[in-house]
Write a structure and sequence with these properties.
- This protein has about 150 residues and is of the alpha+beta class.
- The chain has one domain: Aldehyde Oxidoreductase, domain 3.
- It is built from four helices and nine strands.
- The strands form two sheets. Strands 3, 4, 6, 8 and 9 form a five-stranded antiparallel sheet that branches. The chain has a four-stranded mixed sheet with strand order 1-5-7-2, sandwiched between helices.
- α3 packs antiparallel against α4.
- It is elongated.
């Protein structure tokens, strides 16, 4: 069980890089999650932003992500903890910081496992725990000129 990638980067992310990093002859299944910047925030979301909680749908122009200096270390610890249960063959997670436009890739998670169910389970757990625990903050910019920070402690 190997963590092949756990990084926070300012440069554009590559799905192909993550896929290659988790590929293995031992794996019968690979699951990828790719999170992109969407053009709106509102009721269809997860409820983590103030606009979603207020039931408004607002046009997003771009995001700026910031991360704590130890975010990559924390991400690696999370991936290593999930790898330790032995269900995954290889695990990777990479998140982008800085300025991102609508359509840009913000996060890529990859998990390979001997069977597809394990790959799906660990991938979902990794992205859910990553979003809930890694100190990365999103500054949304809206088309009406307003802005909003999401994920601040």
């Amino acid at each position: 069980m190997t963590v092949t990638l756990a990084e926070i980067r300012e440069t554009p992310l590559s799905v192909d890089e993550v896929l290659a990093s988790v590929s293995s002859p031992r794996a019968g299944g690979v699951c990828l999650f790719v999170g992109t910047v969407r053009d709106h925030d509102g009721p269809a979301g997860t409820g983590v932003s103030d606009t979603a909680a207020q039931g408004r749908d607002r046009a997003v122009t771009h995001l700026d992500y910031s991360a704590h200096p130890q975010a990559a270390d924390t991400a690696r610890e999370l991936a290593e903890r999930l790898a330790a249960d032995g269900r995954a063959v290889r695990i990777a997670v990479v998140h982008r910081v800085g300025h991102l436009d609508v359509g840009d890739i913000a996060v890529v998670v990859g998990v390979s496992a001997e069977h597809r169910g394990e790959a799906f389970d660990v991938c979902r757990r990794l992205i859910d725990e990553f979003k809930a625990t890694i100190p990365i903050w999103k500054h949304q910019q809206f088309a009406d000129g307003a802005d909003e920070w999401v994920g601040l402690p």
